[in-house]
Design brief:
The protein has about 160 residues and is of the alpha+beta class. It is built from four helices and eight strands; from the N terminus they run βαββαββαββαβ. The chain has two domains: about 70 residues, 2-Layer Sandwich (Alpha-Beta Plaits); about 80 residues, 2-Layer Sandwich (Alpha-Beta Plaits). α1 crosses α2.
């Protein structure tokens, strides 16, 4: 039976490249002259930003998001944390979300069931397996999920015919 997996993954190589480009841009920008500001990836779970003032953090977020979009990373997978001011420094953490959580998986299953397409869905950890008798049904589900307003970016992998 044909099947495919619905996943939510990031290309960490592209995330690293976007963060490196943003760091390079901050070093060369005039409004950041003499300011010790930087981005840092922490254990593939978050990106930490540090600057002297909160206003600079807002500029840094714009720079980072522009670099992420240019690299093809969906901004839905990034979640901003609170700004922390301490020791004349402002820091903010951006959490990087990967995988499909249980609540979001149930929402996706409900969307598929409401469409009345003859497929079965299974939640397997942080991904969903969709199986059906016809390849056309699976492609219909793919286009349905692409058009749906989801809180996370989804990709389709492991398509078997």
């Amino acid at each position: 039976m044909p099947s495919f997996d619905v996943v939510s993954e990031l290309d960490w190589h592209e995330v690293t490249n976007a963060v490196d480009q943003a760091n390079r841009e901050i070093v060369t920008r005039y409004d950041f002259k003499g300011v010790d500001a930087s981005y840092e990836i922490k254990e593939k779970t978050s990106i930490d930003m540090e600057a002297k003032a909160e206003a600079q953090l807002k500029q840094m977020i714009d720079i980072l998001f522009q670099k992420m979009v240019k690299r093809g990373i969906d901004l839905k997978s990034l979640e901003r944390g609170k700004v922390v001011n301490a020791n004349l420094r402002a820091t903010q953490s951006i959490t990087v979300k990967e995988g499909i959580e249980a609540a979001e998986a149930k929402k996706i299953v409900k969307i598929i069931k409401d469409s009345k397409v003859k497929v079965q869905t299974q939640i397997q950890g942080d991904q969903l397996r969709v199986t059906g008798k016809k390849r056309d049904d699976l492609q219909e589900v793919m286009s349905l999920l692409r058009a749906a307003e989801l809180d996370i970016p989804v990709q389709f992998s492991n398509f078997r015919d």
